[in-house]
Amino acid sequence: MTLSVHGLETHQDQLERLLAENEALRAELLRAQQLANMGTMAAMVAHEINNVLTPMISYAQLAQSDPSFAAKALARAADGGHRAAAICQSLLGLTADCPRPCEKVRLAGLVRDTLDAMARDPRKDLIELVVEIDEDLALSTRRVELQHVLLNLVLNARAAVLKNPIGRTVRIAARVLSADGPAEPAIEIQVADNGPGIDPALMARIFEPFFTTRGRCTCAEGQTKGKPAPAASASGQWKSDTSSEGEGSTRGYGLGLAFCHRVVTGLGGTITLDSQLGQGTTFTIVLPQA
């Protein structure tokens, strides 16, 4: 450390030290959000693994008592094993910790891998999942980072539509934006839901770290019925304290969308949102294609 003539740290040294500490804290924030994502999905994954194991055990027990079912039991065991392995492989991909260079990624495949990592079929929650992405649409990006962003947005959308008794829809779409003048082509990705929406008064702060709408009445349901609203996620979309599937606490801590904003910015893109109370929320990501 360089000292001044009085043996004290110079202003430049202090600035450099603070900048380094700030960057280290940001890195820890990103890692903390990744771990939070994994925790959110853990109960969902356990539920689905149990669904895989239950018929495997049943057929094995049946084959023990009646050998004529042995072939069917083996086939069911093989199918279940492949499915469980696919779930685990997707989760391992999401835990990658080292920075990676950009690579060419087919977006439709990336979205499928992200949904596979969640394990739970949205149809079990009466959610219509609409994916509108051309199979050939590709961009150069850091795969795992973009996958975490999409995971955050899809989890938020899922939590939002679960507040609807019927008519739950989550839409993931992407398209190429035409370049204007010297600008390079870009990819637009949207994750939309028809949940309760976000109060316009809160939208300006949605991407701030640790900003949460917990305790605020921002959804149309709470405003129209005059009832205390349930806990809200970091995006302002309402989440029940405990879901119908017993997934445990889903309360947010104001990190998810701050994480998304930082990652997308680091990838050279932008993330914005549009929301209407009682109609839903759309998050839009724009990333350079090359």
Which keywords apply here?
290 residues; alpha+beta; Heat Shock Protein 90; 7 helices; 7 strands; 17% strand
Short description:
With 290 residues, the chain is an alpha+beta fold.
Structure description:
With 290 residues, the chain is an alpha+beta fold. It has one domain (11-288): Histidine kinase-like ATPase, C-terminal domain (Heat Shock Protein 90, 2-Layer Sandwich). 46% of the residues lie in helices and 17% in strands. The strands form two sheets. It has a five-stranded mixed beta sheet. It has a two-stranded antiparallel sheet with strand order 1-3. A hairpin with a 3-residue loop joins β6 and β7. The radius of gyration is 22 Å and the shape is globular.
How would the blueprint of this fold be written?
Blueprint: H1 11-65, H2 70-94, E1 103-106, H3 107-118, E2 127-132, E3 138-141, H4 143-161, E4 168-177, E5 186-193, H5 200-203, H6 220-225, H7 256-266, E6 270-276, E7 280-288
Parallel strand pairs: 2-4
Antiparallel strand pairs: 1-3, 4-5, 5-7, 6-7
Helix pairs in contact: 1-2, 2-3, 3-4, 4-7
